[in-house]
Design a protein that fits this description.
- The protein is α+β, with helices and mostly antiparallel strands.
- The chain has a single domain, classed as paralog of FGE (formylglycine-generating enzyme) (Alpha-Beta Complex).
- About 15% of the residues lie in helices and about 20% in strands.
- It has two helices and six strands.
- It is globular, with a radius of gyration of 15 Å.
- The mean pLDDT is about 95.
Length: about 160
């Protein structure tokens, strides 16, 4: 699924539910993936066996295809599949580095970036474990599609 298609889905679910759904920002994605940890993956510094879908991570889907959602243990926030399975589109435009100060409030960083290229996070079933680290970031054109690209929606909650 392309970034543009992910955005179309978000628009559809907002119209359907009347709730403020959206793609996560890059900062929100990493916060969610880490779930309060400072380790390479939320479960520790080593990939281990059977913790994620990557090539090779010790699951039945390694290097073959995506795994069904929820096939791996949830992190401390109750979120499944933050590492591996598919790269997840986020709202942010691509910047080559964090130089130039991304927004400190965790909002999407679009100013000054290349918005024809968007950020993806989390790694996929095709990648080796280094591409699944909580801090890993990559990019793809916003119209690129593939079976290793997906997304996660967030919802803005008001107090």
């Amino acid at each position: 699924m392309s970034w543009a298609e992910a955005k179309q889905y978000v628009d559809w679910i907002v119209k359907l539910t009347g709730k403020p759904y959206r793609l996560l920002t890059e900062a929100e994605w990493e916060y969610a993936a880490r779930a309060g940890t400072t380790t390479v993956y939320f479960w520790g510094d080593e990939i281990g066996d059977g913790n994620a879908n990557c090539n090779p991570c010790g699951s039945q889907w390694d290097g073959k295809r995506t795994a069904p959602v929820g096939s791996f243990a949830a992190n401390a926030f109750g979120l499944h599949d933050m590492h591996g399975n598919v790269w997840e589109w986020v709202e942010d435009c691509w910047h080559d580095s964090y130089a130039g100060n991304p927004p400190a409030d965790g909002s999407a960083w679009t100013a000054g970036g290349n918005c024809n290229i968007r950020v993806v996070r989390g790694g996929s079933w095709l990648n080796d474990p280094d591409f699944l680290r909580s801090a890993i970031r990559d990019r793809s054109t916003s119209v690129a599609r593939g079976n290793a690209l997906g997304f996660r929606v967030g919802r803005t909650l008001t107090p």
